[in-house]
TrEMBL record:
Gene3D superfamilies: 1.20.1530.20. The keyword tRNA-binding does not apply. This is Putative malonate transporter. The chain crosses the membrane at residues 6-25, 37-57, 63-82, 103-120, 126-146, 158-178, 221-243, 249-269, 281-301. The lineage of its organism: Archaea, Methanobacteriati, Methanobacteriota, Stenosarchaea group, Halobacteria. One of its GO terms (biological process) is transmembrane transport.
Amino acid sequence: MSLASNLLYMFGLLGAGLVARRLGLLTATRADYLTRFAFYVALPALVFDSTATTDLAEVFSPRMIAAFVLVELAVALVAWVIHRRVDAPAKRSVAIVQSYHSNFGFLGLPIVTITLGAAAAAKASILLGVGALVQIPLTVLVLMTINDAEADLRDELLGIARNPVIVTLVVGLGFAALDLPVPGVAATALGWLSDLALPAALLSVAASLSLDPDGIDVPTVGAVVALKVACMPLLAFGVFSLLVRDPLAVRTGVVMLAMPTAISTFIYATQLGGDTRLASANVFATTVSALLAVFALLQFVL
């Protein structure tokens, strides 16, 4: 499919999920099953399928990883400076976190796969793992520090280690490093499941999106969208262009960092004293605008 067709396909899935939820077809229980399928089955299958048979020398790049981490930390620092004027700690903490915490798993990896291909998917899988190791502990620390909330950082780190996508990434890289063959039947099944990753993820995201227009802090939401959807990918393009020589790695890194705010930030906000209404509004606004931003990046910049 062309880039425009891919964009229409993604918006179509997102819209279908919103309509299905409105009509009562995508109930909370069904959405939970869909999310579990995406998280425990489709996304791990995509990660393994994209890494197990690749040449690690072609997809692994220390410069790519360094650029990726540098952009994440830089945007987090900029967000801290820009949102420091927000008086309420619950709002300030959420605004900072949601300005950098990206949806690498449910949207980043599937979108990279469908728009940039299998070789980019392997690079994106590695960046997904790196991103989880950086942004999850950072998010917990920011929310704990600003809101004086209590949380066990060790449990969060153990949660990363038990994450099925991360576990599958390690296994897939092990297959690639040891040059282990993947049986034909298994490879075929994984390919089928991988194809379901984006539809399942987008429908799951749609089922989780909600927007209550009453009482929304429009300036703060606008600042979060500007940082997450515009500043972060543009900074990524500059940093990757300077540090990384592989054009495909540049495109992959920029698209991954152009992803909207992760839905998981709403959960973290709920658990650690953040403003949940602002968190929900930011997820909705960045998700809709990020898909358009990715199209513009791929069409006119990358």
